[in-house]
Design a protein that fits this description.
heterodimer; A: 354 residues; alpha+beta; Rossmann fold; OB fold (Dihydrolipoamide Acetyltransferase, E2P); 2 domains; 5-stranded antiparallel β-sheet; 23% helix; B: 287 residues; mainly alpha; MetI-like fold; two-stranded antiparallel ribbon; 75% helix; globular; transport (chain A); Carbohydrate ABC transporter ATP-binding protein, CUT1 family (chain A); membrane (chain A); nucleotide-binding (chain A); NA-bd_OB-fold (chain A)
Chain lengths: 354, 287
């Protein structure tokens, strides 16, 4: 099973909500759409679901053009951020509704609904109405409907966003297993980089209505293809600075210098953009973290296991994220050390060079 | 520790006074008339439940009640489905929304006696636009002052024209409150338009439709002004609905006792049927 987007666009009034996008999504793993709110994840899902018309381009399912096919005939499932269930139907009837519409035999519906209910631990609630369920149970009902339907494609549009933290983690752990081996193309939209990393598979990074990078999740995390992708796939935001390369030396501002190695050392001299993740900028010197920056601490956040500090130096605001609890003092200058081996370098067009 | 005193009575007193003047005292006056006979001069003779018995056994009352149920039944059967259909076909967004809403609200803004007068003139065979067109252009014999059927068609049409908008506006309010996501979910499930109506729109409109049906029942069951101005209850007694009959009895014949008894029976029927409607329509929600 595959879904292929060929040069699709979506237009609302004079605005292009999805700019020309091509993408091939396959079964067997999660396809994550990662981007902030308004980046076009939902728009793209609606195009694939046929809920919105294409302005141009084609959508193919298994090589067959479905661009003009009604949503009703696409055989897909969609789980929303909001728990959408039919309010006057029981959980059983909700899960059964697409099967009933498809005209399936009663005994088969019973079997499929019970199977899905077992997987999502909804057995005891089958005769309740949605308003008698907790948020987590309501969303599990919506997921059960998607599973029971055995559709060709399942779109999960930030399905965990409205659940509390514990439930979210629990359900997220179950998700890949729920859809494994069912043969459907699973598309999962999220605004949280961490979710993309946890769910694995393939990730498409979205920004301002187009896909900036698509590939195996770990790979695009390790090697962002451009500055925007590096930024989209980072939380807290990735640190970005302007450097000048001269010989094998990189110069950031007037005072900060380090030796370039590998690919980066072979680049022609000139200006470049450097990006480094917050967890590679640390408050203590180590063998690898050896380039010193002095910054004024603006904001600090302590969680049980991590400390983050936003600091400014020169014209830049950077973030440091380190394990443990570190006693930063807001408003004071502090030493930070970055790991040059983990720098990403981009040319003036924003594309990765090393 | 709970302190007990009678101060709370002071707080409900204003409401009690208001309700007393506005409902209880007038109502008790009617109750008073309904169990006595009076010939004026403030002389009263105790009659007990005689008037009630007389009204309940009277053929005149049965006939008026029958006509009343026929009228209310007809307008509900026409106005509710028609109102839903119009609400469904109204645009949900864009420039035409306010235009449609204002057009819908217009008939309801016209005073009731004006509506009666308008339709009276409109259907006059010789000078009314509709009456003239039907009689002289199409050659259909249509005169509601002579023909009971024509009179009925006219009062029902007039009520449909006047009040369908109420059902439309309420149903429309129910419809626009349905989030798009439900329609999308239904599309994805492969549901037909009928299934969307049956399983999404109708359940979501249920509350407002309950209100619409109740309001239309009560208003049409108590209707007086429009048919009074339009047909005056005629020809003969063919459009003499309950309230018209009641006024004839109370003011025309000055039979205050029987009229008071009839009012209370009338009130009890309205209340009873409203309660029945409400209970039946909200039965599912209570389970």
């Amino acid at each position: 099973m595959t879904i292929e987007l060929r040069n699709v666009t979506k237009r609302v009034g004079a605005n292009l909500h999805i700019k020309e996008t091509s993408l091939t999504l396959e079964t067997g793993h999660f396809n994550v759409l990662l981007g902030e709110t308004g980046s076009g994840k939902t728009s793209l899902i609606k195009l694939m679901a046929g809920l919105d018309p294409l302005a141009s381009g084609q959508i193919l399912m298994d090589g067959q053009d479905i661009s003009k096919l009604n949503t009703q005939k696409r055989n897909i499932s969609l789980v929303h951020q909001f728990f959408i269930n039919y309010p006057h139907m029981t959980v059983f009837e909700n899960i059964a509704s697409p099967l009933k519409v498809a005209g399936m035999a009663k005994s088969e519906i019973q079997g499929r609904v019970e199977e899905a209910a077992d997987i999502l631990q909804l057995r005891p609630m089958l005769h309740r109405r949605p308003h008698e369920l907790s948020g987590g149970q309501q969303q599990r009902t919506a997921l059960a409907r998607a599973i029971a339907k055995e559709s060709r494609a399942v779109f999960l549009d930030e399905p965990l966003a409205n659940l509390d933290y514990k439930l979210r983690e629990e359900l997220r752990d179950q998700l890949p297993e729920l859809f494994a081996g069912r043969g459907a193309v699973v598309v999962y939209a999220t605004s949280e980089p961490e979710e993309a990393l946890l769910l694995g598979g393939m990730t498409a990074l979205m920004h301002d209505g187009h896909v900036t990078q698509f590939g195996p999740t770990a790979e695009i995390y390790r090697k962002p293809a451009n500055v925007i992708s590096a930024d989209v796939f980072s939380d807290p935001p990735i640190n970005i600075g302007q450097i000048t390369k001269q010989g094998t030396e990189a110069k950031l501002g007037d005072l900060i210098r380090w030796q370039l190695e590998g690919e980066a050392a072979t680049l022609p001299d000139g200006p470049y953009t450097v990006a480094i993740r917050p967890n590679r900028v640390l408050p203590r010197r180590s063998e690898s973290a050896n380039v010193r920056l002095i910054g004024r601490v603006l904001v600090t956040e302590l969680s049980g296991s991590e400390s983050s500090a936003h600091f400014s130096f020169g014209n830049d605001n950077w973030v440091s994220l380190s394990a443990g609890v570190f006693p930063f003092r807001v408003g004071e200058e502090h030493e930070f050390f970055m790991e040059p081996a983990h720098c990403h370098y981009f040319g003036s067009d924003g594309n990765r060079v090393a | 520790m709970k302190t007990e005193n009678q101060r709370a009575w002071l707080l409900v007193l204003p409401v009690l006074v208001l309700v007393a003047f506005n409902a209880l005292i007038p109502m008790m006056t009617v109750v008073n008339y309904s169990v006595q006979e009076t010939f004026g001069d403030n002389l009263f003779f105790w009659q007990g439940l005689d008037w009630y018995e007389q009204i309940l056994r009277s053929e005149r009352f049965h006939a008026a009640l029958g006509r009343q149920f026929l009228f209310t039944g007809l307008i509900l059967v026409i106005e509710v489905p028609l109102g839903i259909a119009i609400a469904l076909s109204m645009p949900r967004q864009g420039l035409w929304v306010p235009v449609c809403l204002v057009l819908m609200a217009l008939p309801m803004l016209i005073p009731w006696n004006v509506v009666g007068a308008m339709w009276n003139i409109f259907t006059l065979p010789d000078i009314g636009l509709l009456g003239y067109f039907l009689n002289h252009t199409l050659g259909i014999n249509y005169d509601m002052t002579q023909d009971p059927l024509a009179a009925w068609i006219t009062i029902v049409t007039m009520d449909v024209w006047h009040w369908t908008s109420l059902v439309v506006l309420l149903a429309y309010a129910g419809l626009v409150s349905i989030p798009d996501a439900y329609y999308q979910a239904a599309k994805i499930d492969g549901a037909s338009n009928w299934a969307v109506f049956r399983f999404i729109q109708l359940p979501k409109m249920k509350t407002v439709l309950t209100i619409a049906i109740l309001l239309r029942f009560m208003d049409s069951f108590n209707i007086y002004t429009e048919p009074f101005v339009l047909t005056g209850g005629g020809p003969g007694n063919s459009t003499t609905l309950l309230s018209i009959d009641l006024v004839k009895m109370a003011l025309g014949q000055f039979d205050l006792g029987p009229a008071a008894a009839m009012s209370l029976i009338y009130f009890a029927i309205t209340l009873g049927v409203s309660w029945l409607f409400y209970t039946l329509m909200t039965k599912d929600d209570l389970n």
